[in-house]
Amino acid sequence: MEKRYRIFIAINLSNDIKRVLEKHQKEIRGRFTLSQGEDVSEWAKWEPKENLHITLEFLGALTDAEIGEICVVVKEVAERHSGFSLNLNKILYGPPKKMPPKFVWVEGEKSEELTALRQDLENSLAEKVAFVPENRAFSPHITLARIGAWGFKAIEPEERPEINENIDLAFTVESIEVMESEMRKGGPIYTVLESHNLQN
Predict the structure, then answer these.
(1) How many other CB atoms are found less than 10 A from the CB of residue 198?
(2) How many Cβ atoms sit within 10 Å of the Cβ of residue 7?
(3) From CA 187, how far away is CA 182, in angstroms rounded?
């Protein structure tokens, strides 16, 4: 049976941006101690700094040949788009209005450039490889923690940490990456298979 790899397309972050987000992450994690002193931080699995990214498309389990085709498509798309600024403006539970929440995440502002890039990706992938878009609204976000539903429900509502703060963090998106996600005992390991620069 041919080996398959879990593949996604992402926007990666500079080390400077990751360090700022890590500070927010540590501050939020510090709130996860109940008033009685009971530590509840373990009901959330916190993402290591090196894993922070924005997923544009999750493609699932692909063969080597399929990955090669994906890389060609991503390169062609990148060549049609210019770099752009992306603003990160809020840290909150996500997805919005879902209870119990699945994540603690950083939300980014939607932009015409990002929408156009992702739409081009979806159209090109659907045209050239076996890809079916999810057809749901896209909101750029960066996962800081994955929440265990059972653990969250076990906490009294008034004891659940409140997470809803505004931030002001902007960076320039200069490239998009084809990534592999390898599941390990301690959590996923992400590897950049190919990186393609957007145009200046």
Answers:
(1) 20
(2) 21
(3) 9
Closest CA to 117 of 179, 65, 68, 54: 54
Closest CA to 40 of 32, 48, 51, 52: 32
Taking alpha carbons only, the member of 54, 109, 120, 103 closest to residue 86 is: 109
pTM of the model: 0.90
Tell whether the torsion through CA atoms of 27, 14, 85 and 113 is positive or negative: negative
Give the side-chain half-sphere CA count within 13 A for 146. Answer: 7
Q: What are the structural domains of the chain?
A: 5-197 (3.90.1140.10)
Structure tokens given for 27: 């501050």
pLDDT digits (tens, 9 = 90+) for 61-92: 999 999 999 999 999 999 999 999 999 999 99
